[in-house]
Write a structure and sequence with these properties.
Layout: H1 7-18, E1 34-39, H2 43-57, E2 61-66, H3 68-72, E3 80-82, E4 94-106, E5 129-132, H4 137-148, E6 158-160, H5 163-171, E7 177-181, E8 191-206, H6 211-220, H7 223-231
Parallel strand pairs: 1-2, 1-3, 5-6, 5-7
Antiparallel strand pairs: 3-8, 4-7, 4-8
Helix pairs in contact: 2-7
Amino acid sequence: MTKRFPLLLVAVLAACSSAPKADAPPPRREPKPLTVYADSALTESFTKIAKDFEASQGIEVELVFDAGSALEKHADEADVFASASRDNMKYDSKVFAVTGLVLAIKQGNPKNVRALESFSAQANPRASFAMCAEETPCGVATKAALTAAGLADATPAAVGNDVKDTLKKLTAGDVDSAFVYATDAKPDLGIFSVPVRADQRFPIAVVSGSPESKKFYDYVFSEQGRARLTEVGFELP
């Protein structure tokens, strides 16, 4: 004998199968990384600071390095901005690190570079030098030092986009010397340095105002952040 479902039960089952499902929760959005723009002179220290910050706060950090003057043009896109000069800082900021401008020279000084006097028209032989582009913080500092020494017309043999690029001109053998920051002129690169101009002050600012940006800003001034800065040779204000 063949069994048949009652007609009412069949109708109920059909209605249930065709009923719309409850709306599924929207997919969870991954939080955006915290974007930090920083002068290239901060590459080593901020890379370490960001790694420590991520580990302690659970907040991902995206670092963008370049000359402070170049970053300033697009700094509104960042959460935090750290420059190498207040001349390239349009936000309320605070100085967190200090270094100096130096003349980096290859170990052994094969071209007998004697600081700035080696770049005068009377020098024999006249040494070559690299400097940052004039609009960058390190370029402004270099131009001021040359002008103060009566060498405003001294012409660089090579110009770097930022302090790291300028240093590469020296280590690659393109020039006899290079104007860079003391924190970049490391002996393990086969160079030594002569102090030229002190008190290059680095400011930092919160741009976006997000809670995460304020946490990173505070972390830079924390004991851990300051330790990372001094590790690479920065002085504290």
